[in-house]
């Protein structure tokens, strides 16, 4: 049925108190006589074939439905109040005839007033005489409403809100009226639920897409690969993983599973990720980071719970410190031993207890060529297979291969054609062998902000090729100075890039810092110190200014562990 | 991002300035502003504590030289402390700053 037809059949009727009782009686009789017709029309009120409604949001859709209900039921106002998040308040969301209630943002506590009582009891309610003594919201009687009838909006047993209609002339809402109103309420509830869950699902999916790294970071000395497969039917659940480096050169890895589904779980997941990153900046102890995260979640997200495995790799990548909050331990495969599930103590999940719990950190030695595999329970848990069997299968599958190959093997071995009921997240990390790292090539924008990133890259690479702490400190300053010179002097306002090539053998590091600009003369006081520092802290420095740009070549002997 | 933190404690005409974090070209100017803002011309002595600093390059050294210069004009005593044997101490030693200010090894 189209809109035009509806308008023809049910012309809006406006009645004032001055109208005669006879007119009212005739009108009510007409309503009863046409009730069968009204019922049929109500059943089709939000027919999906109605293209007018297909593109509307919740508020617009409700407004249009309410306009139709008003016409079909012959009432003067029709209003929907939806239950706000938390379930303690009703908020006027849409109205036809009582628009001021929506514009004024009326909030009614559940249990209070006309709408509040309907919500609390989940029962229809009729008031024949509206006045200051019967209705709490002055808007209703100031408007001149004489009679009110309302029904709860229920979908799948869950309360969504309240629908009420009002009449500007005295009217007794009878059983037939309530029947029609309940029918209207069902349609409104259904339409609202569908619209809300569609909007929530879209938001949750967008949030999760945004949360998972679109591409894993490039970390010198560590190869990374990951897989994420959402559950097939149930919509977004709360699995997530994250890999990030710190300014200190440490590499952090987190994988977690928030209890719950949908937008709620995705929102908590995003807050957990942010909080984890924030606490990671302040501590090199995963147990401490998870303790702070636990405190954060218990206070700010009191109804949430999540498992998480959180690891922090030292800059040299030879050791990972790990803390587990109710999460499955990673699989570690080393070149010289059978792959094993890390023997790491498991503390309670985040948000599981009402008080702080002591959290442990264990340290895993990771020789070059080793693979560490993190995952969520969706990978190993199946209805038809005990988790121990899944874990054993996983352990046997992990090899010291490239992370991409490990991920592919693990997915192939643990997931068959049958549907999985849960999200699956897998993250594989492989520590590269120093032989693979003999040379490194970096390119950064020629801006001061790049200097910290350059140092972070050196802090990871140099220990991996055998540099001692002293070697590292000296090379940080020499390469840093050469880069700072390029950043400061090589380019005009358009900027450019700084290229750094590093090569190492057992005894020496060669670093070449190149720009494509044209160095200007240093300005200001206290200059020239940088070049002196570079010469003092390395074994050889050559600076070549050419037409194509400048290159600075630095040679520094590695002292290793020998006493200087 | 390079971050440094400047903490100031004043007492009896003297002032302790603790600089932690890292200093390079990207944040040298703001670190200099923070340090200079803490120093008034009524001070008798300034103590710069670099024991919590983890990186400094020539941009950072420029601050210290400029500071030493300024304090000499103000006839204010200046003392610098850095952990003995640390990379920071090594860079300061190489820069020749010790000829201008009293460098104390902690």
From TrEMBL, chain A:
Pfam families to which the protein is assigned, alphabetical: GAF_2, HATPase_c_2, SpoIIE
Keyword set includes Endoplasmic reticulum: no
SUPFAM superfamilies, A to Z: ATPase domain of HSP90 chaperone/DNA topoisomerase II/histidine kinase (SSF55874), GAF domain-like (SSF55781), PP2C-like (SSF81606)
Keywords, sorted A to Z: Hydrolase
Gene3D superfamilies: 3.30.450.40, Histidine kinase-like ATPase, C-terminal domain, PPM-type phosphatase domain
Molecular function via GO: phosphatase activity
Residues covered by the PPM-type phosphatase domain: 219-431
InterPro entries the record matches: Bact_Sigma-Reg (IPR052016), GAF (IPR003018), GAF-like_dom_sf (IPR029016), HATPase_C_sf (IPR036890), HATPase_dom (IPR003594), PPM-type-like_dom_sf (IPR036457), PPM-type_phosphatase-like_dom (IPR001932)
Coiled-coil zones: none
Keyword Hydrolase: yes
Domain GAF: 57-202
Signal peptide range: none
PANTHER family (UniProt xref): STAGE II SPORULATION PROTEIN E (PTHR43156:SF2), STAGE II SPORULATION PROTEIN E-RELATED (PTHR43156)
Record protein name field: GAF domain-containing protein
Automatic annotation (TrEMBL), chain B:
GO MF annotation list: anti-sigma factor antagonist activity
CDD domains attached to this UniProt entry: STAS_anti-anti-sigma_factors
UniProt xrefs under InterPro entries: Anti-sigma_ant, STAS_dom, STAS_dom_sf
A Pfam family the protein falls into: STAS
STAS domain mapped to chain residues: 4-106
Superkingdom of this protein's organism: Bacteria
PROSITE patterns from the UniProt entry: STAS
Family: Belongs to the anti-sigma-factor antagonist family.
Protein name: Anti-sigma factor antagonist
């Amino acid at each position: 049925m189209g809109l035009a037809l509806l308008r023809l059949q049910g012309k809006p009727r406006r009645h004032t108190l001055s109208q005669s009782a006879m007119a009212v009686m005739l009108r009510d009789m007409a309503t009863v006589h046409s009730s069968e017709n009204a019922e049929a029309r109500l059943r089709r009120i939000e027919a999906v074939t109605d293209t007018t409604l297909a593109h509307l949001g919740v508020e617009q859709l409700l407004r249009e439905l309410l306009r139709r209900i008003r016409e079909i039921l012959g009432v003067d106002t029709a209003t929907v109040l939806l239950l706000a998040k938390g379930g303690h308040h009703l908020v006027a969301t849409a109205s036809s005839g009582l628009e001021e209630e929506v514009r004024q943002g009326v909030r009614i506590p559940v249990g209070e007033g006309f709408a509040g009582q309907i919500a609390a009891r989940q029962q229809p309610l009729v008031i024949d005489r509206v006045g200051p003594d019967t209705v709490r919201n002055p808007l209703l009687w100031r408007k001149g409403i004489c009679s009110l009838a309302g029904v709860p909006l229920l979908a799948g047993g869950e309360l969504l809100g309240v629908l009420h209609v009002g009449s500007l002339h005295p009217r007794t809402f009878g059983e037939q009226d309530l029947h029609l109103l309940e029918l209207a309420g069902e349609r409104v509830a259904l339409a609202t639920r569908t619209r809300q869950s569609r909007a929530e699902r879209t938001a949750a999916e967008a949030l999760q897409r945004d949360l998972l790294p679109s591409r894993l970071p490039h970390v010198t000395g560590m190869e990374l690969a990951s897989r994420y497969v959402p559950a097939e039917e149930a919509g977004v659940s709360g699995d997530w993983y994250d890999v990030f480096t710190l300014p200190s050169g440490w590499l952090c890895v987190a994988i977690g599973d928030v209890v719950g589904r949908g937008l709620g779980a995705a929102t908590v997941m995003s807050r957990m990720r942010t909080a984890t990153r924030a606490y990671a900046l302040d501590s090199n102890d995963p147990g401490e980071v998870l303790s702070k995260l636990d405190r954060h979640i218990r206070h700010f997200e009191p109804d949430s719970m999540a498992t998480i495995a959180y690891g922090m790799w030292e800059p040299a990548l030879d050791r990972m410190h790990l803390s587990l909050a109710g999460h499955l331990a990673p699989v570690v495969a080393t070149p010289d031993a059978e792959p094993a599930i890390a023997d790491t103590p498991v503390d309670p999940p985040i948000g599981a207890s009402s008080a702080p719990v002591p959290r442990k950190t264990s340290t895993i030695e990771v020789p070059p060529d080793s693979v560490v595999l993190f995952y969520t329970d969706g990978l190993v848990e199946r209805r038809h297979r005990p988790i121990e069997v899944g874990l054993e299968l996983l352990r046997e599958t992990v090899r010291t291969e490239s992370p991409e190959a490990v991920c592919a093997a693990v997915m192939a071995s643990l997931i068959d054609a049958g549907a999985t009921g849960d999200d699956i997240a897998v993250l594989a990390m492989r520590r590269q062998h120093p032989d693979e790292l003999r040379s490194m090539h970096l390119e950064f924008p020629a801006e001061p902000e790049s200097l910290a990133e350059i140092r972070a890259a050196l802090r990871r690479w140099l220990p991996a090729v055998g540099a001692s702490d002293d070697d590292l400190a000296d090379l940080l300053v020499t390469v840093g100075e050469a880069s700072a010179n390029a950043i400061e002097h090589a380019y005009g306002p358009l900027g450019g890039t700084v290229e750094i090539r590093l090569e190492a053998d057992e005894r020496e590091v060669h670093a070449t810092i190149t720009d494509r600009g044209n160095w200007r003369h240093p300005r200001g006081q206290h200059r020239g110190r940088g070049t002196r520092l570079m010469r003092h802290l390395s074994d050889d420095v050559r600076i070549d200014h050419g037409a194509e740009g400048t290159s600075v070549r630095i040679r520094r002997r590695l002292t290793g562990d020998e006493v200087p | 991002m390079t971050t440094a933190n400047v903490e100031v404690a004043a007492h009896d005409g003297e002032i302790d300035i603790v600089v932690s974090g890292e200093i390079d070209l990207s944040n040298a100017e703001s670190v200099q502003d923070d340090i200079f803002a803490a120093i008034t011309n009524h001070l008798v002595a300034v103590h710069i504590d670099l024991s919590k600093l983890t990186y400094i390059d020539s941009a950072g050294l420029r601050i210290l030289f400029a500071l030493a210069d300024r304090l000499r004009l103000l006839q204010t005593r200046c003392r610098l402390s850095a952990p003995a044997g640390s990379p920071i101490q090594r860079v300061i030693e190489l820069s020749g700053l010790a000829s201008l200010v009293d460098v104390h090894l902690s």
